[in-house]
Amino acid sequence: MKILPYQPDQSNLAYSVGVTLDRFIKLKQSDFPFASGELSQLLRDIALAAKIVNRETNRAGLANIGGAFGQTNIQGEEQQKLDVIANIRFMRALSKGGEVCAIVSEEEDAVIDLQNNSGKYVVAIDPLDGSSNIDVNISIGTIFSIYRRKTPIGSPITAEDIMQPGNQQVAAGYVLYGSSTMLVYTTGFGVNGFTYENSLGEFFLSHPDIQAPKNGTIYSINEGLEMEWSSGIKSYVFSCKEKRFQSRYIGSLVADFHRNLLKGGIYLYPATSKNPSGKLRLLYEANALAFLIEQAGGKASDGKQRILDIQPESLHQRTPLFIGSQNMVDDAEQMIQCFESEITAISH
């Protein structure tokens, strides 16, 4: 019997499809000796739910699941039908996996206690960010944060498990549903992006070790709110225009963040006279993206301090957010603080 060693096919007849998300997670499992595989399984559960939401998103125009649901969430925002569907899909995936003890969702008023006292992790999630863009076929996304619980395994969850600052995250990421669907995540060892291949039903590594440019020429802000900005924000945006930077604002946080992560830029959602605490949520929007951007070499701030160092005080706490290329965020911070110092000096 003749035995030949395997030789990879070097012809162009069968191209390589790359590394699947599942295989990549297994390869990286050694980064978490304490996890015993639970964190890896949790990431797979999130990926599975993302595949289902991707399917629902793609058929939204055919299945009458676009448009408003007729109710508002805890934020006072009108829920879209896909908001509700996405929330259900992720809740089911996270509850059935067995790794999670509690979930914080944008679509739920209170913490969801899964009554799984053996679960090691708490997940904070925005199931469908930018859902108001569904009906006009603009990119939307999912944002998630994963924390290790603080209380002993086997005991009921407490506020200590939920109200953790972003610097305690063990993993975070987002899914972008657009011209292609991507899952981008970090476990504190760099940022990697995976693109969904519909015909195979798998996420494949497409953007290994993503590094955010230190500088950029894109600024993303809702300029319709200019009359509500502070003088520092107005001056920073004016300086961007003086430098002939490009204004790019989609109105979908994941999409705006993703573009700036890859190309360089800054996303700004400052405090306004109408929303003095900002509008974006700390636990399930700002913290996740702040963890990602720092792992990619960028920066995230509320204008005064690092986002990941903010101690949350309420479940749906809001925060201003300045996030993206490090030098651009530094410049924005300095200008904001300079104007605040001048105002303080004048008032005294």
Automatic annotation (TrEMBL):
The cofactors named for this UniProt entry are:
Mg(2+)
- The residues listed in the UniProt record as binding Mg(2+) 1, with positions renumbered to this chain, are E106, D126, L128
GO BP terms in the entry: fructose 1,6-bisphosphate metabolic process; fructose 6-phosphate metabolic process; fructose metabolic process; gluconeogenesis; sucrose biosynthetic process
Its Gene Ontology cellular component terms are:
cytosol
Catalytic activity of the protein: beta-D-fructose 1,6-bisphosphate + H2O = beta-D-fructose 6-phosphate + phosphate
Q: Where does substrate bind?
A: D129, G130, S131, S132, N222, Y249, Y267, L268, Y269, K279
* Location relative to the cell: Cytoplasm
Pfam family of this protein, just one? FBPase
Q: Which UniProt keywords apply?
A: Carbohydrate metabolism, Cytoplasm, Hydrolase, Magnesium, Metal-binding
Does this entry carry the keyword Hydrolase?
Answer: yes
Kindly list the positions annotated as binding Mg(2+) 2.
Answer: D126, D129, E285
Q: Domain Fructose-1-6-bisphosphatase class I N-terminal: where? A: 20-208
Q: How is the cofactor bound?
A: Binds 2 magnesium ions per subunit.
Q: What would be an example GO MF term here? A: fructose 1,6-bisphosphate 1-phosphatase activity
Protein name (record) = Fructose-1,6-bisphosphatase class 1
State the organism named in the record. Algoriphagus lacus
